[in-house]
Recover the amino acids of this structure.
């Protein structure tokens, strides 16, 4: 990411425009030279099993089958999807640790030494990278570089540790079943750290076909979320994506089993009280604002309440 060590304003602007071009065209980019040490990422690949509380807290452990990500907002349709084909994954949700209302749920230090501090350090590392990428986006959209700074400084993010257990191919062949169904993300950006197994697929916005986004060592996959798309009047794309199973290992003449997969997703959000309304450089006489203003909290809580039991 040449933005971080650019020596001239022109070099910084060029990198910013390349980042914005990726979000305009596809909604996903690979970011390398991002400043996050490989040892930091390896240290963060752990998980724990704790109880998840409430859509407004979004903390703790989510068991296999409880979440069903989808673009639908119809509660009956989501319930039918979950009963028929729940997402085959489990996760650990971590938010900002100083929140007075919604508390993180940590394992005992004696059970998982330094787990809490590792995750808190990683949370801050991801937030800092989010700030830099949002500054690049601001420059690429011809805004002041620090335009978003005061709108994202409360760190209202979610760090999700994801585990996709091995699954029999016969289960994955069931109608609608996936490791994680097709969906877009809710916030500004998602930073995705993958292991070597793969399985992420991204919808081509032009052909509507899904294409693999394989892991590239040392890089982070970053995609734009719904609120950034709304903010930019859909100049930046919030693209549908899903997680499918990689090739299975044959265990009998009629059955195979997929490998386990782990990933870490850092869902970046604006401050919960931030008003998301059309950016001044993303509308004009020939491009009217498409969306009514909404606060981050209104939008995200509404989406989460539909996604979970």
């Amino acid at each position: 990411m040449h933005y971080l060590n650019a020596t001239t304003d022109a070099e910084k602007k060029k990198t910013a425009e390349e980042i914005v071009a990726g979000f305009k065209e596809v909604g996903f980019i690979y970011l390398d030279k991002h400043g996050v040490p490989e040892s930091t990422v390896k240290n963060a690949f752990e998980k724990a099993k704790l109880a998840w509380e409430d859509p407004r807290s979004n903390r703790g452990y989510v068991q296999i089958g409880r979440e069903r990500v989808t673009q639908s907002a119809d509660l009956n349709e989501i319930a039918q999807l979950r009963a028929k084909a729940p997402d085959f994954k489990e996760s650990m949700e971590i938010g900002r640790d100083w929140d007075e209302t919604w508390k993180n749920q940590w394992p005992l230090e004696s059970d998982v030494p330094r787990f809490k501090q590792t995750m808190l350090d990683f949370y801050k590392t991801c937030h800092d990278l989010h700030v830099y990428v949002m500054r690049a986006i601001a420059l690429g959209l011809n805004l002041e570089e620090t335009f978003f700074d005061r709108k994202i400084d409360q760190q209202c993010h979610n760090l999700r540790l994801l585990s996709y257990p091995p699954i029999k191919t016969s289960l994955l062949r069931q109608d609608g079943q996936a490791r994680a169904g097709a969906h877009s993300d809710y916030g500004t950006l998602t930073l995705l750290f993958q292991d070597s197994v793969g399985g992420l697929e991204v919808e081509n916005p032009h052909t509507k076909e899904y294409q693999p986004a394989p892991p590239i060592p040392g890089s982070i996959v970053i995609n734009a979320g719904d609120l950034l798309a709304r903010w930019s009047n859909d100049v930046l794309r919030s693209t549908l994506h899903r997680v499918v199973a990689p090739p299975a290992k044959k265990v009998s003449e009629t059955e195979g089993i997929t490998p386990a997969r782990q990933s870490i997703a850092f869902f970046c959000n604006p401050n919960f009280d931030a008003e998301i309304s059309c950016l001044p450089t993303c509308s004009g006489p020939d491009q009217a604002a498409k969306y009514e203003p909404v606060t981050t909290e209104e939008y995200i809580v509404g989406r989460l309440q539909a996604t979970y039991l």
Summary: Residues 47-61, 63-73, 77-86 have pLDDT under 50 and may be disordered. The radius of gyration is 19 Å.
